[in-house]
Predict the structure.
Amino acid sequence: MTLTKPNTGFWVIAVIALIWNIIGVFQFLSRTFLLTDEVKAALPEEQVLFLESIPTWLQVIFAIATISGLLGSILLLARRKTAIALFGISLVCILVQMFYSWLFTDIAQTMGTAEGYVLPLVIIIVAIFLYYYSKGAAQKGWLR
């Protein structure tokens, strides 16, 4: 398939995806490396205990999800087909992370309904969208 020029919507979506995934990486860094004693003191005790109880393997999944999403966004802007695989990896990791939280923790009771259910659903929807959007962009000849 011949490489064709993407429309303006592609660039808007690609930039929004980049911003979204930068926020995701920041959330990972915040929960993993920036959870200082001062930050913990400002949070309710049950939230601190919850955050400290997250298994290391799940933190690794969180890292892979956010970093692969960010790299996928960068490669989407660079119009590379590799973005599809990275968005796919991100999606799988997000699903593992969210379903673990829903099935094996009391996240909604500890963090609240918005952070326990609403935000994870939005994150899943965006990840699904980015995966299929990048596949569609490749089919249209926008990615090489």
User: Anything to note?
Assistant: The two ends are 9 Å apart (CA to CA). Residues 8-139 form one domain. The CA atoms of residues 40 and 48 lie 6 Å apart.
